Amino acid sequence: MAADPTPNPHATAEEVQAAFADPKLANVLYHDWEAGTYDEKWSISYDERCIDYATGRFRAIAGEGGWPYETAMELGSGTGFFLLNLMQGGVIKKGSVTDLSPGMVEVALRNAKALGLDVDGRVADAERLPYDDNTFDLVVGHAVLHHIPDLPTAFREVNRVLKPGGRFVFAGEPTKIGDRYARKLGQATWWLTTNLTKLGPLRTWRRPQEELDESSRAAALEAVVDLHTFDPAELETTARSAGLTEVRAATEELTAALFGWPVRTFEAAVPREKLGFGWAMFAFRTWQRLSWLDDKVLRPLLPRSLFYNVMITGRKHP
Question: How many Cβ atoms are within 10 Å of 97's Cβ, its own excluded?
């Protein structure tokens, strides 16, 4: 087996320029660039807060039948957020992380080791997975499908590596409508925060200009790596066309997304030390309450396409 490539967290200007015409190169450079700070940027943790979030998403779309799955692979694992928290939550026994970014695989394996979890990993293209047919009981992913250029091929690969009767679960994917309002809210919050913190009394809340410039460059590349937004019904059709069965999509987060995107953008625009534990708990508890409102009150009343996140599950034919 050939050795995996090494991370490249400091891309040259020429590589970045080339990435604007090559989505896969853009994904590698962007995620290698982000790997070391990704968990902090997105408030990712491996404690009760994120264990509850990950298992809650899994339970909401796929139920609790089949727990624990003996073997599972995370597609586009990033730093391991979804797989590792599902393992800690009792959903999975043994896991494999895969990502196109060597930097992300490196961090995911480091996180798994620190948590004492039974995990291996490979740098892998979702359209050509380096695993034999019928390998896994479960394939999972979180916020990955929108990065994959050829989704039909990726779903066929998911079908191929699943064991007969095996399940897949993807969560955290942007809907077409949700992505529009989330991006506009994020852009407005970034503009407002970075301009207000130029004013005298608020200058101590301003991040150094070089850090803001770095974030802006990352955001420009982020626009290249985010390839798709989804209509839930169309996503179901794509999965079924790959031969998968029992396919079902559901959506979540409306008011929670309207709150969450400005909050996350604000957190990225100000120095981390300005925001303490009290802020973190306020943001998390408010998001929890709004998620309850979305799930219990709004989701039965409104079209699923209005919500921000789409989740999808299904099985390989037995």
Answer: 29
Amino acid, res. 201 = P
- Token pair listed for 187: 């852009």
pLDDT at 2 over 70: no
Q: Identify the helix (H) or strand (E) that includes residue 257.
A: helix 255-269
pLDDT, one tens digit per residue, over 200-241 is: 999 999 999 888 887 777 667 777 889 999 999 999 999 999
The H-or-E segment that residue 57 falls in is helix 48-62
List the one residue out of 105, 79, 90, 91 whose CA is nearest residue 139: 91
Integer-rounded Cα Rg, in Å, for the chain is 19
Measured CA to CA, the distance from residue 191 to residue 232 in angstroms comes to 31
* Residue 255 neighbours by CB under 8 Å, 6+ apart: 290, 293, 294, 298
pLDDT at 26 (0 to 100): 85
Tokens of 136: 């896994």
pLDDT band of 18, cuts 50, 70, 90: confident
Other Cβ atoms less than 10 A from the Cβ of 271: the count is 13
Strands across the sheet with 309-315, in order? 119-123, 92-99, 69-74, 136-142, 162-174, 309-315, 245-252
101 CB neighbour count, 10 Å cutoff: 28
> CA-to-CA distance for 206 and 68, rounded, in angstroms?
46
In tens, the pLDDT along 134-144 reads 999 999 999 99
pTM of the model: 0.91
Tokens of 162: 């699943």
CA–CA separation, 244 and 316 (whole Å) = 5
